[in-house]
Design a protein that fits this description.
The protein is built from 5 helices and 24 strands. By secondary structure, the protein is mainly beta. Strands 1-24-23-22 form a 4-stranded antiparallel sheet, with no helix packed on it. It has a 4-stranded antiparallel sheet with strand order 2-3-4-5, with no helix packed on it. The protein has a 4-stranded antiparallel sheet with strand order 6-7-8-9, with no helix packed on it. The two termini are 32 Å apart. The chain binds 2-acetamido-2-deoxy-beta-D-glucopyranose (6 copies). One 2-acetamido-2-deoxy-beta-D-glucopyranose (NAG) binds next to loops.
Length: 333
């Protein structure tokens, strides 16, 4: 009953958004070094530095200011060939050898940056960017084929990440979208033991993940199922999961703000499914810990009809990223 009510509220708000022109005010575009694209996820370090962004050619860049722009910080591959990889902006088999970082998150206690690399799995980057450790992935004999979203619990250092699929890789994304695949899972990595456990499986392309402020639950988005699931970690319902909310669009990354609310990046289709001109409306949706929608912000002025992959609130401002665009944005609702 409650879930049904949430569906109606969600649907009503998104329809309202589609009919109303109110959008976000673009403050700045942070351009990646050409021809690199795809700042799929953003993160800020413990000294308020950044944003750091993942990118199409396997590197992670740090934004250092308006004059210098983005500077190379690290890469997820242990033996990346710069001649072959630098500037790569496609989804080819070559990209698979260079790495493709997606979800990013810092452990602010240690200064380590954790990265969900589509091909190399869960990767840790030391505070100076110099030391890169592949923790859970093909090199460790794990069956990870498409690592996607990530969040770090700021109190415990526990890392939550998603495996979009065990059948398809990022380079097969178009096939994956039409496959009805539900081989994805949500995993937890414990840095004190190096142990990885599966929290939830049979997910339809799990994308973003975010742990609650008190660490009692974790949210995981299912891109192909237009929904967010909640997995309880503590309390009487620990180890069980439930539907958190249904959306009229595909959820990508989820980011917690300082008040414990969540920003979900949601991309909806406009127009008839059979229309060749069917386009995407990128938006950010802010919800409470109970899944109540507080705000829906259109990102049409930021990304046009391209999908946005992340919306993050930081220091009172909003940042967004995209898998395809050549820039990250700063905006206000
Ligand atoms: C946070 O925002 C304030 C006011 O907009 C600004 O002065 C400050 O530089 C910002 N801090 C960071 C770390 O971005
Ligand atoms: C990098 O790739 C180029 C082009 O294939 C090759 O000539 C070069 O030897 C490679 N460098 C290393 C260090 O493997
Ligand atoms: C990086 O790794 C090297 C070699 O393993 C080690 O000597 C160095 O102390 C490490 N640096 C950091 C910052 O962890
Ligand atoms: C990853 O591989 C290691 C070594 O084979 C194994 O101990 C661990 O259980 C695997 N983890 C996952 C999540 O598959
Ligand atoms: C975890 O893995 C790292 C990197 O491979 C290793 O240095 C460390 O000793 C391991 N820790 C434990 C508790 O196994
Ligand atoms: C949840 O699972 C963990 C690990 O299997 C177990 O230690 C814990 O007791 C379980 N909690 C509940 C409430 O079932």
């Amino acid at each position: 009953m409650l879930n049904m009510a949430m569906v109606v509220i969600t649907a009503t708000l998104l329809i309202f958004l589609l009919c109303s022109p109110s959008g976000a005010i673009l403050l700045n575009k942070l351009q990646l070094p050409s021809p690199v694209t795809g700042p799929e996820s953003l993160a800020f370090d413990r000294n308020n530095g950044g944003p750091y962004v993942s990118s199409s050619d396997g590197r992670i860049f740090k934004y250092v200011g308006p004059n210098e722009g983005f500077k190379e910080y690290a890469s997820t591959s242990l033996n990346r060939n710069k001649t072959v990889c630098d500037g790569l902006a496609d989804f080819s088999a070559v990209q698979a050898t260079c790495g493709r970082p997606l979800g990013l998150g810092f452990n602010h206690q240690t200064g380590d940056l954790y990265v969900a690399d589509a091909y190399f799995g869960l990767v840790k980057v030391s505070p100076d960017g110099g030391n890169v450790t592949q923790l859970v992935g093909p090199a460790q004999g794990n069956s990870t084929r498409f690592t996607n979203g990530l969040d770090v619990d700021p109190d415990t250092g526990m890392v939550y990440f998603t495996e979009a699929s065990t059948n398809f890789q990022l380079k097969d994304f178009q096939t994956l979208l039409n496959s009805g695949d539900n081989s994805g899972s949500l995993l937890k990595y414990d840095p004190s033991t190096n142990q990885t456990t599966v929290l939830l499986s049979n997910l339809a392309v799990p994308s973003g993940v975010a742990v609650s402020r008190d660490g009692s639950f974790v949210l995981v988005g299912e891109y192909l199922a237009n929904r967010i699931q909640r997995v309880w970690l503590k309390g009487p319902r620990a180890n069980s999961s439930e539907l958190f909310m249904l959306l009229l669009g595909r959820p990508d990354n989820i980011k917690r703000n300082s008040r414990g609310q969540f920003w979900i990046s949601v991309n909806s289709f406009i127009g008839s499914p059979r229309s060749p001109r069917r386009s995407i409306l990128p938006a950010g949706v802010r919800v409470t810990e109970n899944g109540l929608i507080l705000q829906v912000v259109s990102l049409a002025s930021e990304y046009g009809t391209d999908a946005a992959s992340e919306v993050q609130e930081y220091n009172g401002t909003l940042y967004s990223g995209s898998l395809l665009a050549s820039y990250a944005t700063i905006f206000t609702p």
